[in-house]
Amino acid sequence: GNITKPKTEKGANHLAMEYCVLFSSRAESNAAQNRKATDYYPIRQEFQKKQKWVVLEDQPCHARTIEEGLQAKHIEGKGRVVFAVRYFKKGKFVIEYHGDLLHLADAKEREALYAQDPGTGCYMYYFQYLSVDATKESTRLGRLLNHSKIGNCQTKLHDIDGITHLILVASRDIESEEELLYDYGDRSKESISAHTLLKY
Ligand SMILES: C[S@@+](CC[C@H](N)C(=O)[O-])C[C@H]1O[C@@H](n2cnc3c(N)ncnc32)[C@H](O)[C@@H]1O
């Protein structure tokens, strides 16, 4: 659909503006058809005021517009990786970590299920009081960024029309041809011994 001008509050920062321009049409068109997680999970009243929980459907045609400036490649020993194919200024929106937005308890339940199949990769990202499950294969690139403690991106929660999105922004200036990396943030002993990549 057409990219519509976002309704942003006065004083909203530039990142928010840019991000809304990219996402507002999708957020609007999704609003009606999205299954709300609140349809499935009872949510504490004070929580509900702040957040609308939704399960976002995969939108490959929008992904092409949104995921501009990035390219996925395959690298021996790392699997798929994502490279910048243009310059990203520090603080700018890079990509959405797109998946199902879940409560922690539901995320843990799904993880236990995935653990039964050793072929399932790790695409569950925990952030404060929620988790985004991007395990399902899709055309979206956010799920393909690899880990580094000294990466060039960082995660942030971003609200668009009351819907929470997990996004990655540039933590420093990123040049074209650089691999996009962020800190998965998992410092638990069990995870580190299961996935040595988390050490670095
Ligand atoms: C969220 S996925 C990232 C995309 C993944 N490379 C793929 O091909 O689908 C997480 C998985 O990527 C791999 N990975 C992430 N960071 C890595 C790194 N620094 N070195 C090697 N493998 C890494 C691990 O297999 C990890 O379980």
UniProtKB/TrEMBL annotation:
Official protein name in the record: SET domain-containing protein
Residue ranges of every copy of the SET domain listed in the record: 68-185
PANTHER family: N-LYSINE METHYLTRANSFERASE KMT5A
InterPro entries cross-referenced by the UniProt entry: KMT5A (IPR051760), KMT5A-like_SET (IPR047266), SET_dom (IPR001214), SET_dom_sf (IPR046341)
Any Pfam family matching the protein: SET
An individual GO BP term: regulation of transcription by RNA polymerase II
Annotated PROSITE patterns: SET (PS50280)
Single GO MF annotation: histone H4K20 methyltransferase activity
GO cellular component: nucleus; polytene chromosome
